[in-house]
Amino acid sequence: MILVIGGAGYIGSHLVKGLVDKKQVIVLDQFSTGHGALVDRRAVLVEGDLGNEDVLDSVFRTYPIEAVMHFAAHSLVGESVVEPLKYYENNVVATCTLLKKMMKYDVKKFIFSSTAATYGIPKVDIINEETPTNPINPYGRSKLMIEQILEDFNKAYGLEYIVLRYFNAAGADDSGSIGEDHHPETHLIPLILKHLLGQREKISVFGTDYDTPDGTCIRDYIHVTDLVDAHIIALEALIKGEKQAAIYNLGNGVGFSVKEVIAMCEKVTGLKTKIEFTKRREGDPARLVASSDKIYEELGWRAKRSLENIITSAWKWHCVVGSSESKH
Ligand SMILES: NC(=O)c1ccc[n+]([C@@H]2O[C@H](COP(=O)([O-])OP(=O)(O)OC[C@H]3O[C@@H](n4cnc5c(N)ncnc54)[C@H](O)[C@@H]3O)[C@@H](O)[C@H]2O)c1
Ligand SMILES: O=c1ccn([C@@H]2O[C@H](COP(=O)(O)OP(=O)(O)O[C@H]3O[C@H](CO)[C@H](O)[C@H](O)[C@H]3O)[C@@H](O)[C@H]2O)c(=O)[nH]1
Q: What Gene3D superfamilies does its record include (predicted)?
């Protein structure tokens, strides 16, 4: 059985939907940002906090857990700067409690959701896993701390792990039944689509004076279904014992500027945006684009879906079941 922590969140719920056909799945989530309705009904759903020792004891005693996939975190960069304690408590301290219980119950296979934010402001155009990590906010630091703890646990206790550093996750499952539903929403693509649905008056572009061809930030957008595929491949490699301690980037290897993303949303939807150009958002690197060659060479995974696929799937979900938000 696979324990998926944070499996009621955006990326976790997509993973659960992809994994339940292959494995028995148990989801642990306290619904701070997740929604029970996103969790595939074939999975066992336990409401609880990953930092709660009693809950973890109960889960590990009750179910034969083969591996843990850990998606649960607070993940708003700006909030992490203002409330670092919240981030260190949930992302680091609670994760240490989980790791302690995993060692207690001899569960030694772990997949961890990390982030491009561990790289900070890289000096290279294409980021690979050798690019120095230098996070510039508590969110990124909290993720890097766990990566370092995993390395120590591997050496000391034989914990086997794969860290997956996602770039910008976006898009929705092909079925249109689950999608990205953060509250509050801060991510670019859902914000543009909500605006095009009339739920927001305009879309703000944060900064037009970056050192990029059109002056707006460039990001590497990766379809959530491609992320799911990568997790399942990584899990299989861990279970087969092919990998004991590995870190991989997950991106498309292609960068799109904020203006290009808006243009693609207009193309896909056939609708016109109203844009407001504002000052830079603090802490945004100009360009974050991944090389995912390492995971291709070692595990054979490569992103298959384009930005157009991403936006088309997200639009389908937003149109059919997207949460309705009032205009503001
Ligand atoms: N969305 C992205 O673009 C992106 C990029 C890089 C990394 N990540 C990482 O991927 C992971 C998933 O991101 P997401 O966008 O799906 O976020 P999300 O907020 O939708 O999902 C996180 C889930 O974890 C749960 N959770 C949080 N703290 C918990 C706790 N203490 N105990 C139990 N459950 C808890 C939440 O209720 C939620 O269901 C996070 O770790 C995030 O840092 C996301
Ligand atoms: O209303 C908006 C929202 C975003 N942006 C811009 O769009 C780009 C993408 O922003 P998102 O908020 O969608 O995503 P981030 O790149 O800030 O964040 C993502 O990558 C980070 C790593 O750098 C973290 O991993 C985080 O969890 C993940 O969502 C940025 O340049 C941002 O400034 C706008 O112009 N207007």
A: NAD(P)-binding Rossmann-like Domain (3.40.50.720), UDP-galactose 4-epimerase, domain 1 (3.90.25.10)
